[in-house]
Each structure stands twice: as C-alpha cells, then as structure tokens.
Design a protein that fits this description.
single chain; about 140 residues; mainly alpha; two-stranded antiparallel ribbon; globular
C-alpha cells in the first residue's frame, strides 16, 4: 500500500470510528464540542468557539444560548472588550462532559475487549503515540 492509499484508509477508518463512537452520545454534537473546547482551552468568546468549530457565529451563539440555559456554561464580561463575553465551563457542564466522555470510553472499551485479543490490544496501544504525532503535525504543533 502506498502512502496515499494508507492515508485514505486511515482517514476512512478513523472517521468511521469517530462517527460510530459519537452514536453513544446523549447530547447534541455541537454542545459536547463547545464544552470540550472550554474544558481544554479555558474561557472563550462565542466568536472564538465559532472559529474553532468552523461554524457561523449564529450557529455557535444558538449552542451557547442552550448551554447557558442549562447552566453548563456561564458568561462574564470580557476584560478587554466590553461588547464581548467570555464563556466559562461550570461545574454542571464539567460533570455533563465527564459523563459523555465516560459513556464513550465505556462503549469503545467494551468493543475493544470483545473484538481484540491481547496482542491486538497491545498493537493498538503502540499505535496511539503515532496517531498523536500525526495529529500534532496536522495541527501545526
């Protein structure tokens, strides 16, 4: 298999795995994505969330409004620009995100234990640093 074929197979396989694992989610993908961004990156504005998600400001604002209504995020005035708000993850949001992550990990972990033998699990574990390096390269870090 040449590099291009390997890249395409990897893209298809990982994409399919991600879509399948997301089927275990109980909250809309946009909401869990926003909670994840806030968890990993700290306070963000709605515009920054829209940019990171690659969606319109309107779309991000609707998601943020829903998260605010459920007390998963809180807004405070931006210290450098009074027209903007910084969004913070609340403890309720952190708990909800942890629940989603646990559900995904449990579901995927059960599949790994069902489908893969011990040698295959070790091979999968050994591939994780390689996948992380590829991801870092693609993100420019």
């Amino acid at each position: 298999m040449d590099d291009r074929q390997l890249a395409e197979e990897l893209r298809l396989t990982i994409g399919g795995l991600v879509r399948t694992v997301r089927a275990a989610d109980t909250m809309p993908p946009g909401e869990s994505a926003v909670l994840g961004y806030l968890d990993r990156g700290g306070p963000l504005t709605t515009a920054e969330i829209a940019q990171q998600r690659g969606v319109t400001h309107q779309s991000a604002a609707k998601t943020v409004k829903d998260l605010l209504a459920r007390n998963f995020v809180r807004a405070e005035p931006h210290p450098g620009d009074g027209r903007k708000f910084l969004l913070h993850l609340t403890q309720a949001g952190r708990d909800r995100l942890a629940e989603e992550r646990r559900r995904r990990a449990d579901w995927l972990g059960a599949a790994i234990n069902t489908v893969l033998d011990a040698d295959e699990r070790r091979t999968l574990e050994a591939a994780l640093p390689l996948l992380s390096r590829l991801s870092a390269q693609l993100h420019g870090t």
